[in-house]
Amino acid sequence: MRPKDAILAALEMKPSQGVPTTLYGGGVWTIRHWQKQFGEMIADPRAYADMLIRTNEELRSPIVYVGSGYNNYLAAAVGGRIKERPLGAPDLEEALVKDDVDALVNVDVATIENDPVVQNLRQAARLVAKAIGDDVIVTVTAWGPFTLAGQMYGVEAFMKATFKKPDQVHKMLNFATRLLKQFYAPLLEERVIPMLAIADPTGSGDLISDRIFRAFSLPYLQPLIAWAKSYDAHTWLHICGNTTDKLESIAETGASCFSLDYKVDLAAAKQKVGGKITLAGNIDPVSILNQKGPHEVRAAALACITAASQGGGFILTSGCDLPPTIPMENLRAMLDVPQT
Fold first, then answer.
1. Are 64 and 56 in contact (CB under 8 A)?
2. What's the CA gap between 139 and 116, in Å, rounded?
């Protein structure tokens, strides 16, 4: 069996032997592991692809996330400016919206075809898929519509606008969704990736209620995921924070998999929506993976398996993206648990 087959079975809620285990994200961890910088690597898609391939030779994860840590570059492709950091994913220097959203939302999303980073991310995905895509799932990460729109608008202002300027929020969400489709379209049309990896942290239960999620996030996630499904592509959806209040809404997105933050009670989530959507998670990436040793990692992994693996439809992974300082032996301990 190829490493990706157990993941695909879990995404389709089919029975498989054992519990599939994968990394989630890992862009910042990988950059630090090789002592590189984000801007340096994305300038050379061949070097970036080779770094991802070498990393997976060491870790043997069945999912490889091209573009992890580069999520803000899509907003940069329509006029934003990127700020690199010594450690951590690059940020936007400032919001793109100044006074009114119309100047931004009327931009032709095809303008990203002239952006070198967008082209290099796609090319890196092609190179990784050609090299190892027969054995592992090669995906490309991006913000979800709500988070991408919030980054471009300014997160705090965007939160307020959901109450005070809902029409502007919907304009931004429509634009963000079109932007994501433009970004992913060649990769789906060429069958480079069999899965989108969508992170929507601004949709967190720590920031918005289920009512706001249903009003503003769900109506844009659903068509984006349905569009990917029209290419026979799965969608891995991750939302940070405690999303217990919106688990049923998340199951309605149509995503193949919901990657839960470590703040969510995994057993309760499995009981609530385990028959509707594959769940992935949710070892604490900081207090366990980063701060403990392999023994504690294995114990936490087995606890997750006990809580959620019954009946299938479960993938073991971290409960959010990987901090850059996680020891290699802890990642291997997590990835090797079902085989021990």
1. yes
2. 19
Q: Alpha carbon of 161 to those of 153, 165, 169, 252: distances in Å?
A: 10, 4, 6, 25
Tell me which residue of 176, 188, 277 sits closest to 236, measured CA to CA. Answer: 277
Please answer whether residues 90 and 84 qualify as being in contact, where contact means their C-beta atoms are separated by less than 8 angstroms: yes
pTM for the structure as a whole: 0.96
Residue 121 predicted with pLDDT over 70: yes
Half-sphere exposure of 206 (CA within 13 A, CB side): 11
Whether 89 and 38 have beta carbons less than 8 Å apart is answered as yes
Cβ(59)–Cβ(332) under 8 Å?
A: yes
For 223-266, write each residue's pLDDT tens digit.
999 999 999 999 999 999 999 999 999 999 999 999 999 999 99
The residue assigned the tokens 């931009």 is 107
Q: Where are the beta strands (DSSP E) in 284-329?
A: 314-318
Domain spans in the chain, listed from the N-terminal domain onward: 3-339
Where b means 16+ CB within 10 Å and e means fewer, 197-217 reads bbbbbbbbbebbebebbeebb
Q: Give the tokens for residue 338.
A: 């079902």
Inter-axis angle of helices 145-153 and 166-189, nearest 10: 120
Which residue type sits at 52? L
Q: Give the separation between CA 235 and CA 308, rounded to whole angstroms.
A: 20
What is the dihedral angle through the alpha carbons of 104, 203, 195, 336, rounded to the nearest 10 degrees? 140
CA distances from 274 to 11, 66, 319 (A): 12, 28, 17
Structure tokens at 80: 């934003």
| Cα→Cα distances 130→127, 191, 235, 302, 325, Å | 5, 11, 21, 34, 30
Q: Is 3-339 in CATH node 3.40.50.80?
A: no
The DSSP element (H or E) to which 336 belongs, if any, is helix 328-336
φ, ψ for residue 263, nearest 5 deg = -75, -15
